[in-house]
Design brief:
The complex is a heterodimer. By secondary structure, chain A is of the alpha+beta class. Chain A contains 15 helices and 13 strands. Chain A has an eight-stranded mixed β-sheet with strand order 6-8-7-12-13-11-9-10, sandwiched between helices. Chain A has a three-stranded mixed β-sheet with strand order 1-3-2. In chain A, strands 4-5 form a two-stranded antiparallel sheet. In chain A, helix 5 runs parallel beside helix 6, helix 10 crosses helix 11 (336-344) and helix 10 (304-329) packs antiparallel against helix 12. The radius of gyration of chain A is 20 Å and the shape is globular. The two termini of chain A are 22 Å apart. Chain B contains three helices and no strands. Chain B has helices spanning 6-16, 22-39, 54-64. The chains are: A alpha+beta, B mainly alpha. Chain A binds chain B through residues 196-198, 303, 305-306, 308-310, 312-313, 316, 320, 324, 327-328, 340-341, 343-344, 346-349, 352, 354-362, 364-365, 368, 372, 405, 418-419, 442-445, and chain B through 1, 4, 9, 12-13, 16-18, 20, 24-25, 27-29, 31-32, 34-39, 41-44, 46, 50-63, 65.
Amino acid sequence: MSTEPALMPLVALAKAIADKKISSREATKSCLDRTAQWQSRLNAFMTIETDEALKAAGQADAALAKGNSRGALHGVPLAHKDMYYDAGKVVTCGSKIRRDFVATTTSTALQRLKDAGTVRLGSLQMAEFAYGPTGHNAHFGAVHNPWNIDHITGGSSSGSGAAVAARLTSAALGSDTGGSVRMPAHFCGVTGLKTTVGRVSRAGAMPLSQSLDTVGPLAQSAEDCALLLGLMAGADPEDPTAIAGALPDYMAATKRPMQGITIGVPTAFYVDDLDGEVARVLDETIATLKREGAAIVKVELPDQRQLSSASQLVLAVEAAAFHKRWMIERPQDYGPQVLMRLQNGLAVPAVSYLEAMRWRGAALSAHAAATAGVDAVIAPVSPIPAPTIVESDVGNSLEADAVLPRITRFTRPVNYLGVPALSIPCGFTRSGLPVGLQLIGRSFDEATLLRIGAAFQRATDFHARVPKAA
Amino acid sequence: MTTPTPKEIKAIADVAGVPVSNEVATRIAGSIGPAFEGFAAIAGTLPFDLEPSTFMLAQTAGARK
């Protein structure tokens, strides 16, 4: 493992700071130095707060020297998607409309990480209002993939994916409404956890779709995601949809072996029309899981296209409802592609929307019945590796219009079902682009996904590879 | 469920208070149409007593297993 602080996984970095082997200032400076090296090519950060970060790191070191640790992430420098309200800070949500919006509250997820002692490095780029799957942004420019800057990062947590992959921050919050944690994780070669609806409070996180929005981390490893989830999860008086009850020990789950796990491989949909390299990585990963002790079985899932369609109807309506006022008053201030997506919600009658909402419980029950014999289902995050920025620039060509629905095809069903999914790096294409796969789990059973992910990552090194700076 | 036509979309958007042009209505129909088609087999078939809160019941039932 590297001793350069910015290259260290979150768990190792937090321990090194706690053990006073590395100071918070050294860790923060290391991240800022790498950011200075990469930012002009990646456009991963929205704001870089060098002076404030170094000052906060110095204070963290001083507190630790006096024996005062704030928590499990004392002095750890992090940056997050620019949609988590942080009182007193500008939170743009990737938009022109909120370019000067100063938050008056702090999101619960972010506050819980701050309470654990984190140092703020700045904020990370994102798709405008988290409504785009590629990483393009009409106002702030596209975020570039660290493995090949001509290619997309995926979105909407584009900056989070790029920054974690390039080791500018050891972890970052993203959000997943239609795949926005898993797609950047897949395209950028990092680990991303889409949490169960209700697992992490969404209070103070910019809304896109109240039924589908979830808060989740991107990090180097499943173990890092486990640490973050354990700090963020649980009930919150500010968000009544956050479920109460005892939480599993996620870190303990990552120490458990692969033996005893059964993984389902879908017989259709997720294995159809795959790019050859994604299909190869899927086959190789299944072989690795089997070699490590997992039982592999076939699973017949209910019609996933219906789930995806229901997800699109719900998202379209809820997003349009959130944005209605600005669609009337400030339509010219949206990027054209985002305005077009928002306008789609105007076409869905209320009865159709409510039918999609009424079916959700029945669809989840059917999914649970179909997967009752397995601990997780494995599937590609996307049928393709990262396309280029040019070929996925919607409106640039007819071919680009065909790329977007293909990118999101495998992520939307999970959002409709509300179940958790962990995207893990599983290989690389011959041209050096990462390929991730998602493990889809049972409601509120993130622990099993993290267990499988960590066991897989003990047997492989895809998650530990770092793109080279030019 | 049938996909709304551009004419119907224009009317719905007007009622919603966010009027759109004919051109935009046509574009929307093409963009959201596949979602309606994909959901067509479910639309109009749901049992009378099914309501959205059954999702939370299904979540907790799934978590108990």
